[in-house]
Specification:
It contains 16 helices and 16 strands. The chain is α/β, with parallel strands linked by helices. The chain folds into two domains: 125 residues, Urease, subunit C, domain 1, CATH 2.30.40; 277 residues, Alpha-Beta Barrel (TIM Barrel). The strands form two sheets. Strands 5, 6, 7, 8, 9, 10, 11, 12 and 13 form a nine-stranded parallel sheet that branches. The structure holds guanine (GUN) and zinc ion.
Length: 434
């Protein structure tokens, strides 16, 4: 039995700090995290834990901050190279840049190359779990899960289902979307740390028959996830209305086919109406807030305060390649600004709660990841308060924990991640001594 004691400042959440204030988190200035066989055994003040665990090998990260590995609830691995595509809003951006790029994933070797690149980028940014779109090609999802399995990362992924309003080279059929998804679920869902998400791209690119197949899969496999897009862009919403004239609204299209539930994640949700908020709350489905994408594609500002008021579950995500950074710190930075533009506040504690335990809760994974509760999987990131000269200068002027965390969020990116651990194993390190 190998026991490790990581000595560092430690921060993790027990609940939502907007609700429970100081009782919502534990912070140990001189703290220790004890890990045995990839699991958290204890977390607390260094003095006490060093006495209690004298048999542990000590890894010294004093001066840094350990937080749980960050979680990204919406991202597209085949869009690494789509990032920073100029000049278009959603529908033209998909047609001009995204669909041609996704065509390449027909080639499994290419898909493997990009899947490995993608996972390395996430780990460099301190992200250890993500909910990920593949492409329409089932081999893209095999490539992704094979790469994730190798790293032992906890990942959720699914084959995109799309059978209309897309180029001929990128469409499937209701039947093959069903059989391919079923085959992938049988092969990957709950294999090691891998989890499957049924993935209709959005209402525009699926027929009634295909959405019905998605609903059937969710019925047959109640523990799999559902991921899709909703109400991101006004032209998209109008198009959906024209395709589904009988639906009450956008969410109703998905609802009709049984796609709403506690494991359903709807990316964006910027232009949702009160009835849709009510229905999300009733079903426990969540919205994934993608600030860098929403700004980059000119989609709009998500009204986070209304989601809070209406008790709609929400998480936070990068949405690369509509999003512009793999870093959840940069994503929180832009989320702060989206809130500012609407006269709303997103505190640093709430931000880091969202990126860890909050996101884990929306994925129903908080019994495994997102905090340092005993028995959880030991995924964590080591943050460096001296990652750049500017970070060092600013941190030296910060007096409180809130100020330090806020500066970390606004100035931090992949350079601020000193190391990332996956199930107790170092998966990325900027330090040569580790
Ligand atoms: N809506 C449908 N497909 C996509 C996609 O790939 N990215 C974003 N941002 N929105 C979508
Ligand atoms: Zn997306």
């Amino acid at each position: 039995m190998l026991k490790h004691l990581y000595r560092s400042s430690i921060l993790h959440f027990l609940s939502d700090p907007d609700i429970n204030g100081h009782d919502a988190y534990e912070f140990f200035e001189d703290g220790a995290l004890i890990v045995v066989d990839g699991k958290v055994v204890d977390c607390g003040a260094a003095n006490a834990l060093m006495t209690a665990h004298q048999d542990a090998e000590i890894i010294d990260y004093q001066g840094k901050l350990i937080i749980p590995g960050m979680i990204d609830t919406h991202i597209h691995f085949p869009q690494c190279e789509v990032i920073a595509s100029y000049g278009e809003q959603l529908l033209d951006w998909l047609n001009n840049f995204t669909f041609p790029a996704e065509r390449q994933f027909e080639d499994k070797d290419y898909a493997s190359h990009i899947a490995n690149f993608f996972l390395d980028e996430l780990l460099k940014c301190g992200t250890t779990t993500a909910m990920v779109f593949g492409t329409v090609h089932k081999q893209s999802v095999d490539a992704f899960f094979e790469a994730s399995q190798k790293r032992n990362t906890r990942m959720i992924c699914g084959k995109v289902m799309m059978d209309r309003n897309a180029p001929e080279f990128l469409v499937d059929t209701p039947e093959c979307a069903y059989t391919d998804s079923k085959e992938l679920i049988e092969r990957w869902h709950e294999k090691g740390r891998q989890l499957y998400a049924v993935t209709p791209r959005f209402a525009i690119t699926s027929t009634n028959e295909q959405l019905d197949k998605a609903g059937q899969l969710l019925k047959q496999y109640p523990s799999v996830y559902l991921q899709t897009h909703i109400s991101e862009n006004k032209d998209e919403v109008a198009f959906v209305q024209s395709l589904f004239p009988a639906a009450q609204d956008y969410l109703d299209v998905y609802d009709h086919f049984g796609l709403l539930g506690r494991r359903s994640v709807f990316a964006h949700g910027i232009h949702l109406q009160p009835r849709e908020h009510k229905r999300l709350r009733e079903t426990g489905a969540s919205v994934s807030f993608c600030p860098t994408s929403n700004l980059f594609l000119g989609s709009g500002l998500l009204d986070v305060a209304t989601l809070e008021k209406e008790q709609v579950a929400y998480s936070i995500a990068t949405d690369v390649g509509g999003g512009t950074s793999f870093s959840m710190l940069q994503t929180l930075n832009e989320a702060y600004k989206v809130c500012q533009l609407q006269g709303q506040k997103l505190s640093p504690l709430k931000s880091l709660y969202l990126a860890t335990l909050g996101n884990a809760k929306t994925l129903e994974l908080d019994d495994k990841i997102g905090s340092f509760k005993r028995g959880n999987e030991a995924d964590f990131a080591v943050l460096d308060f001296n990652s750049t000269p500017l970070m060092t200068l600013k941190q030296s002027r910060c007096k409180t924990l809130d100020e330090k965390l806020f500066a970390m969020i606004i100035l931090g990116d992949d350079r601020a991640i000193a190391a990332t651990y996956v199930a107790g194993k170092c998966a990325h390190s900027k330090l040569t001594s580790i």
